[in-house]
Structure formats: C-alpha cells, structure tokens
Amino acid sequence: MSALDSPTVAAIQMSSLGEVAPNLALAGDLLAEAARQGAQLAVLPENFALMGARETDKLGVAERDGEGTIQDFLAETARAHGLWIVGGTIPIAGGEPDRVYPACPVYDDSGNRVARYDKIHLFDVGMPDSAEAYRESATFIAGTPEPPQVLDTPIGKLGLSICYDLRFPELYRALTAAGAEVIVAPSAFTHTTGSAHWHVLTRARAIENLVTLIAPNQVGHHASGRRTYGHSLIVDPWGQIKAEAQTEANEVILARIDRRRAAELRSGFPCLAHRRLG
C-alpha cells in the first residue's frame, strides 16, 4: 500500500501552562517528534498555546487574524518540518474588547494557512450535582455554522470541529455530506465530562459517519485549577481505537489511515446512503 493510501497522522496531547512561550516551546518539540516519526499531519489540542489562570487571560494574548507570535510559530513549524498542522485553537481578535474567536487554523507543509474554523458551539454548562460550571460565551464569540469547513489535504478531505462540537452530531453529518473523510476535534475536555463521555462521543461520531476521527486532548491540572481528561484518540471509521494516549502527560500518538479500507466500508456498508431524515 502506498503512502498516499496509508498516510500517518499524529494527535498531540498537552498539559498547557498559563504562559504562551513555554507552551510554544513544548508544542514545537512535540510537533518535531511527530514529524520524525513520519506524520504527514499533526493536530494540536484546544487552547494549546494558553490555559490561563483566568478565562480573561486569553484576551491579553489574542492576535489579529494572520499575524502574531502564535500564528507565526505554527506557520514556521509547518514549513520547517514539511508538516501539515491543525493548530488546535488560538484566540483571534474579533472586534469586541472582552471576547475573542476560538479559531482553529490549518497550515500546509509549506507554512501557508489554508483554513480557519471558529468554534460554533460554546461550552456554557454546569455539571450535574456539582458546583463546577463553565461559560465560554463570556470570553468567546461563536463562529458561523455555514458552510462546514472541509478542505483537501494529503490525508484526504479534512473536516474541522472543536471539543464541545462532539455533542452535536448534525455538524458531523454536515461535514461528511461536504465530503470529509477525516475529522479533527482538538479538545480540552474536562475530567468530569471526559471520564463519562469522551470515548463514547468520539467513537460514535466516527462510526455514524464512517470517518477517521483525530481527537487530541488537554490533560492534567492547569493554572485555573481546571483538570482535563487526556486520553487523546485516533479512531478509525469502524470505531476502533487505533491510538490512545496512555499517560497524564505531554504525548504524541500516531496511527496510519487506511484510505482504501475506509472507501470499502462506505461502499459495502452504505448507511450514509440509507438516511431517511435530514
């Protein structure tokens, strides 16, 4: 099987800190490791460049679209390693003084930005039977739902989603209808929700759409006191876990995508063509 039929992808698990510089240094090391192991595309987790002590910390490091330290780092790293990089999420200024866009940029192996997806589902929730609560809309601006973000890459047609999006299967249907063969879900799932739902949600989204799902996650305790779940995953279109982070630490996981097998599944098990609603 050729490299085109069986490309290698990487999910980068991080325990990001409350300052940008050490996070970029760490991400650089992990991306270099992914490239050394043959990855053609690597995906960073949500908020990879900053997990601040306060939700408002992101406002102080927000960048204008297309310029800034974080975006320059992603472009230069992609170019240096000849590696496609999905940049988790980064805070992009959106014209409001107290809110920014949670943007997922994609860079090709020449360092050109080729896509940007802004998270459309914001995590405004309280945990059952707990005081734990989150309100992303206080500091984030939701993106526009249409059109679904799907782009051509060396590993196939790539669909973009982020973290809490995993709970909204209609987005994944739209990405699949737009041609996605692989979907990324850079995440910072809490330990509470992750221990209950992370494996179920990631595998379900892969199974019901017959896509490969690449889901890097944050892990451990962060400056805010928030604890994230880890267990970064690469799941194949049959729902089999091809790679999973095994530690509560920074880690690179890799897997090969069998594009021929994925095409055979869609042809021989045509559940997507059997839909009667939507």
UniProtKB/TrEMBL annotation:
GO molecular function, one term: acyltransferase activity
Keyword Coiled coil: no
Keywords, ordered alphabetically: Acyltransferase, Hydrolase, Lipoprotein, Transferase
Ranges where the CN hydrolase domain occurs: 5-259
Entry superkingdom: Bacteria
InterPro entries per record: C-N_Hydrolase, C-N_Hydrolase_sf, Nit1/2_C-N_Hydrolase, UPF0012_CS
Pfam families given in the database record: CN_hydrolase
Tagged with keyword Nucleotide-binding: no
Similarity comment: Belongs to the carbon-nitrogen hydrolase superfamily. NIT1/NIT2 family.
Protein name: Apolipoprotein acyltransferase
